[in-house]
Amino acid sequence: CGIGKISTSSWSADVDTFILRSTGCCSPSLVSTSPPFGPKPGSFGLGMDHAAEDLSVAGRQRAGEAWLKASAWAYDQGDGVEDGQAIRDRVAAADAFVHLQDLPETDLLLAADYATHEAGFAAAKGVVGGVKTALYHLDNADPTQPRARLLPEEIARVVHARAAHPGWIAGMQRHGFRGAAEIAATLDHMAAFANLAGVVGPHLFDLYYDATLGTAQVRAFLREANPGAFEAMQARFAELLAAGLWETRRNSIRAELEALV
Fold it and tell me: Which pTM does this prediction carry?
């Protein structure tokens, strides 16, 4: 019936993440036979370096391998034991992946770690293969009203509600250099999700382009307040087009980007 059961086989000490595996029945039950996996004792993060920013097949492969390597310590008991084959087997068998967010003041496009962990799993899945996996983002900021959404739905919600919203962009403009950097960083995080997991629709890049470089006033702000961020956004949008991760519905965008150089 497609009901999943929560497995702690990919829980890590620095992120609240779970992998679900199909039970083949209609009563979900907690898996207790598999040890939790996580990073090496005393280490944090996934060690992807710039792999998530490399919008290529090779970059996606490196990101997936980094996710697997950083998540390969099994904590059945004691200080943990590295078991690279076990985490690969677990990822290959997983048919759903859930990432928990419990901070009300943030969203998954405000920090790079969301993409490296959530989309990084998708990249790892691409490395090991196996059954098709559904990606979920679970908003538990209000524990009394947890809300689970498919990852593409959560990204679309954030782009519409925050990233491309004129109110947020106006607020970033009041912060000058730092605000411009945040606008550019949001695009980088969208690009990472698109490259590693293929969960960002082209219409969302259209929307974000129109709200930033496609708006004269915002474009002027970026150019003046933080030229580096302005140039980085130009390059990132161009890279997305070249990599086929953004198939814009507006033929004029390529020409507009070239004109900005």
Answer: 0.85
Structure tokens at 158: 């954030």
C-alpha–C-alpha distance, residues 209 and 220, integer Å: 14
Which residue type is seen at 45? G
| Residue 83 near residue 91, CB atoms below 8 Å | no
CA 165 distance to own-chain centroid: 20
At residue 87, the 3 state secondary structure works out as helix
Rounded CA gap, 190 and 255, in Å?
22
Whose tokens are 């629709």? That residue is 201
- C-beta of residue 155 within 8 angstroms of C-beta of residue 108: yes
How far is residue 36's CA from residue 9's CA, in Å, rounded to a whole number? 4
Q: Residue 256: what are its φ and ψ, rounded to 5°?
A: -65, -40
Return the closest-CA partner of residue 72 out of 134, 12, 19. Answer: 12
Interval 169-193: pLDDT, tens: 999 999 999 999 999 999 999 999 9
Backbone angles phi, psi at 246, to 5 degrees: -135, 105
